Amino acid sequence: MDIASCYFIVKSRRYEEYVVIAVCKLYLISLHCVAFSALGYAVSDIFEYFGTINEKFLGICYQVFCIIGVVITVYLPLDYYYDGVTLYTHGPAAIATYVFVSIYILSVIIAAALLKNHLKAQKVYALYLWMAVWAISAIIQFLNPKLLIVSFASCIGALIMYFELENPQSSLSRRTGHFSSAVIHEYLDYLYQTKQNFSAMRISFQTSAESSDENKLLRQTIEMLSDFLFSVDTAKIFDTAEGYFLLIFENTDFLESTKYQISTYFQSIENSSDVGNAITLMRPFYTIIPDCSISENADELMMLLASYVPTIKGNSSSNEVVVTAETMSDVRHQKDIEKLVIDAMENNRIEVHYQPIFNLATNTFSSAEALVRIKLIDGTYLQPNEFIPIAEISGRIIPLSDAIYRRALSFIKSYHIERIGIKHIELNLSVKQGESPTFTTKLLQMLDDYQINPDLINLEITETSSLRSKERLHENMSKLEAHGLSFSLDDFGSGSSNLNYIIDMPVTVVKLDKLLSEEYFKKNNKAQAIVNAVIEMAHSMGIQIVAEGIETQEEFDEMKSLGVDYIQGFFFSKPLPEHEFLKFIQEHNLKYIYQ
Ligand code: C2E
Ligand code: MG
Ligand code: MG
C-alpha cells in the first residue's frame, strides 16, 4: 500500500484527485490494521486460555477503537506533497493515524510488560523490539516527513517477530525436515484444547538395533521412509527423537488409506536389493489410535504410544497394534500398579513372606521360598502376580528385585535361620536379572555386605520364551554356582516346558508346578507319565523334586508315595510374614531336631 500510494502521488496528474487520496487513505488504514494486529498477537495467548470477562470487554473496546480510527481516517481530509523529488502525505487524516498507531504501540508495550509472566520471554523480547523499531521510525518520519520509513520499519519488525517466534527451523527436525518432537506436545495440546477429533499412527521399527550394522540399516530405513513421507499430505508428520514417525490425522477418514499407501511403499522397495534388505530386517510396526479421545490429554496419548514400543525381536506375525479404549484402561491400570511399586520402594513397603518347604527325608521344614508382597497403605497386600509381570515389562523389575533380595538377606542375617533348621532360602530370579551382565557381581556383593554364606541361597529360575540371552543366564549361573549358590527350576510343567533346562543348566532341584500336579491328581494319563518320567530322570541325575501347590492330605500322601523329596503348599502353610514364619518353623522343627 505504501508503494502504491507513492506511485499514485507521482502519477497524480494522470488520475482523478479522489483516486489518489483513496489509495493514500488505504495505506493509512493498513497501518491501523497492522498496529492493531500487533496488539492482538501480543495478547492472543492470554485471551485463549485466561481471558477474564473484563479482559474480553477490553478486547472489544479495542476493536471498536480500531473501527473508529479507520472511520476517522476515512472522513478527515488528507493532502499530499510532491515536488518531483520528495513526496509525502500530510493533513488531519495522517495525524489521526499517527495518534491511533501510537496508542496501539503503547498498548502493546504495556500489555507485554503486564503479561510478562504468561508470555514466552522470547515473545516479550520480540514484541519490544518490533515496537521500538516502529516507534523510532515513526518519530523520525514525523519530524522529517520526507523520510518514508514507517512501513519499512514495520516490515522489519514483523520479520524480527517471525525469526524470533515463528521460525520454522526450531519446529523442524534437523535430521529429516519433518516437524520435530519439540512441537508434538504443543500441537497435541492444541488439538485436545480445541476438542478436535483426530487419529494417530506411529511408525516404528521392530528392531533392537544392537549391532552397529543394524543401526546403520535403521538409519537408512528411516531416511527412506522420511523422504517418502513428504509425499503424504493427509496427515501432519512428526519425527520423534526416538527414531519413529508420528502421523496425526485431523481428518480421521484418511488413516486407513494412508497406512495402505505406506505399506504399499514398503512392499514396493522390499524387492530392491540392499534397500529391501533393510526394510525386511527392520520390520515396520504401526501403532494406531483410531480415536484419540480415548486419552484425556497429550501426556497420556504420548505415554500410550510409548508403551507399545516393540522392542523384542519376536516372531510375532502382526505388524500393527490398534489401541482402543480397552487398551487404554489396561495401560492406566499398568501405570497405577507401576506407581504403587515405585511408592512402595520409596517408602520401604516391599515385604517378603516365606513359605515353608517340607523335607520328606528329615520330616522337617528345611527350606523356604521367599515371596514378595507390597504392603498397601490400608494394610492389605498386593500379590506378586499383579505387579511382577508389569514390573518386568516396565523395566522396574531390577531395582525391585534388588530391594527384595536385600530384604531377604537382611532377614536371613538377623535371625540366623540356619539355627532353626533352614538349610536354604529360595529366591525367585526374574528373567531380566538372570540375563543382566552385572547380576553376578551385584549378588555376590550383596552376600558380602550381609556376610551371608552363599550356600544359604537357592535361586529359582523359570523357563521362559522371553529369555533373550540364554548364554548370559548360563554364564551367570556357572559363576554363582562356583561361589556355592544353588539353583531350582521353578514352575516345571506349567508352560513351555523344556527338559533341556535340566540338562543344560546347573539346577539341583526341579519344582513341579501346581498345574501339573493338578492334572496328575485328575488322573490325566499324559500328566502322570510326565511326572513319573521327570521324577525318575531327575533322581537319576541327582536332582531333587519339590511338589508345589499341595493343599490336601490326599495330595500330600500321593506325592509322598511318588517319591518326591519336598512338599510345598497350603497343606502346611501359606507364605508367612517374617515373625510368623520364624514361629512356625521353631514350633515344627525344634521338636524334630531335639527328638
Ligand atoms: P512361584 O515362584 O511359582 O511361587 C509359588 C506361588 O504359589 C506363590 O504365589 C505361592 O503363594 C503359591 N502357592 C504355594 N502353595 C500353594 C497352594 O497350595 N495353593 C495355591 N493355590 N497356591 C500356592 P505368590 O506368592 O502369589 O507368587 C506368585 C508368583 O510371583 C511366583 O510364583 C513367582 O513367579 C512370582 N514372584 C513372587 N515373588 C517374587 C520375587 O521376589 N521375585 C520375582 N521375580 N518373582 C516373584
Ligand atoms: Mg518360585
Ligand atoms: Mg513355582
Automatic annotation (TrEMBL):
InterPro entries: Cyclic-di-GMP_PDE-like (IPR050706), EAL_dom (IPR001633), EAL_sf (IPR035919). Residues 334-589 form the EAL domain. Keywords: Membrane, Transmembrane, Transmembrane helix. The chain crosses the membrane at residues 18-44, 56-75, 95-115, 124-142. Gene3D superfamilies: EAL domain. One of its GO terms (molecular function) is cyclic-guanylate-specific phosphodiesterase activity. Pfam families: EAL. This is EAL domain, c-di-GMP-specific phosphodiesterase class I (Or its enzymatically inactive variant).
